[in-house]
Amino acid sequence: MNRDSFRNDQRQSVLFLHCSGSSARQWSPVTAALTEPIDAVPLDLIGYGADAPDWPAGKPCTLDDEADRLAHRLHDAEPVHVVGHSFGGTVALQFALRWPSRVRSLTLYEPVRFALLFARRMTRAIGDAIVGVGRKIGAKVMAGRRAEAAELFIDYWSGRGAWAAMNPRHQEAVVARMPKVRAEFEALFADPIPLAAYRRLSMPVLLLVGGETLTPPREVARLLAGVLPRVDCETLPGLGHMGPITDPTRFAARLGAFLRSQRAGAARNARTLPQADGGREHQGLVRGFPRTVLASGA
């Protein structure tokens, strides 16, 4: 991908990273709903896309593998705005940690850096719970029961009955991707990056959480909101973990407003939050979260 493919004097280049079990096509309704002029670059993560080979059951894939592939794809591009949903948000953070100068801003919808939950007593049980879900899904994949794994995966994130409501073609696609989904869960559980590392990210961050989401991604967002220096964290009432897919118009409206603020130079004047003291959560620009203070490593 060359530099010219990202350049347009009137447009901002925006990289879109999809969630687990999906593909870059999930962003089509979002980009269609955006009124802000952008050069949209939706990329498939490793193991996804029409030309992706079947992912062997048990084959690992790390977050650095995903970030390295993005760096290779964008090697001669100008810095970009990066949008990520769920696992895609996690990869966006990894890319920003590795190459911060290549990221103009981050828009993250419920990034799933689950390993952050393991380091604190108050969130450890929540982390253990999502590990239990991920390992149960992974065990079904390794036993060759991919359809059962897919049903458990979809119903966990979208609610009981969501799998049964999917059309057979979409079910077939998710079933085929389940070995990669298993690898993604394991990459998340093995993530060694400590919470304090995110204090180094100086770019503007829009961190979005669904008001009806599950506890693990909500608590990950709460932890990140406490240490990201230039974060605007908002809860979108009525949305769940799959908000960018179930309500792309609403997500696009918030994303468009954020991108307009970047175009107008609001990032230069954005308030920089002080670093969280002792791991305590900041409330400065964190909107929509209860004002619960999470004690450090207690």
Molecular structure report:
By secondary structure, the protein is α/β, with parallel strands linked by helices. It has one domain: Rossmann fold (3-Layer(aba) Sandwich). 42% of the residues lie in helices and 12% in strands. It is built from eleven helices and six strands. It has a six-stranded parallel sheet with strand order 2-1-3-4-5-6, with helices on both faces.
Blueprint (SSEs and pairs):
Blueprint: E1 12-17, H1 28-33, E2 38-43, H2 63-73, E3 80-85, H3 87-98, E4 103-109, H4 121-142, H5 146-158, H6 162-165, H7 168-189, E5 205-210, H8 215-225, E6 231-236, H9 243-246, H10 248-263, H11 266-269
Which characteristics define this entry?
11 helices; globular; disordered N terminus; Rossmann fold; alpha/beta; 298 residues; disordered C terminus; 42% helix; 6-stranded parallel sheet
Low-pLDDT residue spans: 1-9, 269-298
Counting H and I runs of at least 4 residues, what is the number of helices? 11
Strand order of the largest sheet: 2-1-3-4-5-6
Largest sheet features = 6 strands, parallel
Radius of gyration: 18 Å
The count of DSSP E runs of length 2 or more, i.e. the number of strands, is 6
How many structural units, i.e. domains?
1
The CATH superfamily bears the name Alpha/Beta hydrolase fold, catalytic domain
